[in-house]
Design a protein that fits this description.
The structure is a single chain. Helix content is about 35%, strand content about 30%. It is α+β, with helices and mostly antiparallel strands. Among the domains are: about 80 residues, no CATH class; about 80 residues, no CATH class. The strands form two sheets. A ten-stranded antiparallel beta sheet has the order 7-8-4-5-6-9-13-12-11-10, with helices on both faces. Strands 1-2-3 form a three-stranded antiparallel beta sheet.
Length: about 230
Amino acid sequence: MGEHIFLKVLGVTLLLILAALFIPVGQPPEEYRNLPWQIEILDDGSSRVFGIHLGRSTLDEVEQQFQEPSEVSMFATDDGERVVEAYFNTVTLSGFKAKIVATLGFSREELQGIYDRGERISTLAQGKRKITLSGEDMERARQTPVVALTYLPRIDLDEQIIVKRFGEPAERLAEPGGTKEHWLYPDKGLDVVMDKEAREVLQYVVPGDFQQLREPLLKQESVGDNAASDQG
């Protein structure tokens, strides 16, 4: 009897925790701001999420919005891919805590210059390197627009919650390995990474740039299908 009561209480507690993700204590619903599903599509086709106008808001403005400093680094791979990212360890918006990664909108030529001027290079796993920006490039980064955001919530989301808040995805693409599936919402510029072994990840881009996010996923799925076919 005691074990039954404990399990019942535990179930109710878990439901309350999930509900808390969407109903911050002490705030009426009409005052909610900058929640993960509040994606505003603007007249010019761009989008705003968490109070950030993707493609327009600079890193300086993003830090002011989040009221949190970021750690800025470049990441490079052996095949020539380069990106400058700003990492926010803890961002609290409407009572919700998350980690957020902001991708900065540098051109290929600018990225090459930043790489060449890098002050230090650290080797990471799987042929990836982390580059410390020069002082000049760090200042330039703070005046550069953020073109994408990756949102890592502290609470694990399930499929039911994702569908309730974002609707059914237009497309689902699985990564090789079978643990991750991408739920794609091109009209929102949103990719929700559903992971069987970890918490979900939400990636936001300008809707007009969504194909740039989708194409690598198609290549991954194609590689996975070919590998499965070869094994068969």
